[in-house]
Design goal:
Layout: H1 9-14, H2 30-34, E1 40-44, H3 50-58, E2 63-68, H4 71-86, E3 94-98, H5 104-107, E4 113-119, H6 137-144, E5 147-157, H7 160-171, E6 175-181, H8 198-205, E7 211-217
Parallel strand pairs: 1-2, 1-4, 2-3, 4-5
Antiparallel strand pairs: 5-7, 6-7
């Protein structure tokens, strides 16, 4: 469920140094944003940012960009990061952008991205909105334009219908299905090192099976 609009969210985002304004200016030059060239990973639709902050903490050898299109949701992530930084943590390898994911090819150069995470994406349940799903063929083509050939897209969801739709989209595209499970938390191998999102923790505690796939370009 989308958070209600928070007054002043847009202004707070514009004033924040952790949010990159006009990100298209850095196309092909994202290493300059971080001051060091490291493998670059994106989370598309990052929500409140817990997953990405955990990943940035665990993997200082990587750079991360969190992508969120809703001001109110992004503001929650900024507030969470502020709490952590005030407690002494630093995330020099993490920035955020507020943008519609359809614009990814305008923001990242071909072969600039090493990996993409999609976590508990909006299912857009109505058939006429299928193209908006982040695992649709339309979006897979966008990922192809920015992702390195050996790069992967990792997708997790508790929505079985969305997951089955995603499997069909992969089957009809130029991607290989490398990992697939309909119950991540009961797969002893795949669950090793799994970093949970807020939704994942909530849904799994309710007994909902978590589906996961990892795909790579053919």
């Amino acid at each position: 469920m989308r958070l209600r609009n928070i007054p002043g969210a847009k202004d707070a985002i514009l004033e924040c140094d952790w949010v990159i304004d006009e990100p298209e200016k850095f196309k092909g030059e994202w290493a300059s944003v971080f001051g060091e060239k490291r493998p670059l990973f994106l989370e598309v639709g990052m929500g409140k940012g817990r997953f990405l902050m955990d990943m940035a903490r665990l993997h200082p050898e990587r750079n991360y960009v969190g992508i969120e299109m809703y001001d109110s949701v992004l503001l929650r992530a900024l507030q969470k990061r502020e709490e952590l930084e005030e407690a002494g943590e630093k995330f020099s390898n993490l920035v955020f952008i507020r943008v519609d994911a359809r614009l990814l090819p305008e923001i990242f150069e071909k072969d600039e991205v090493d990996g993409i995470y999609l976590n508990f994406s909006d299912p857009w349940p109505k058939a006429r909105h299928a193209k908006r799903r982040l695992t649709s063929r339309e979006f897979l083509k966008r990922y192809e334009q920015v992702l390195k050939k050996e790069g992967t897209v990792e997708f997790k969801t508790d929505n079985r219908g969305l997951f089955e739709f995603s499997l069909e989209e992969v089957k009809e595209s130029d991607w290989n299905l490398e990992v697939c499970t309909f119950d991540l938390h009961h797969d002893e191998e795949l669950v090793k090192g799994n970093v949970m999102t807020e939704y994942e923790e909530k849904f799994s505690s309710m007994g909902n099976p978590i589906c996961k796939m990892v795909i790579r370009q053919k």
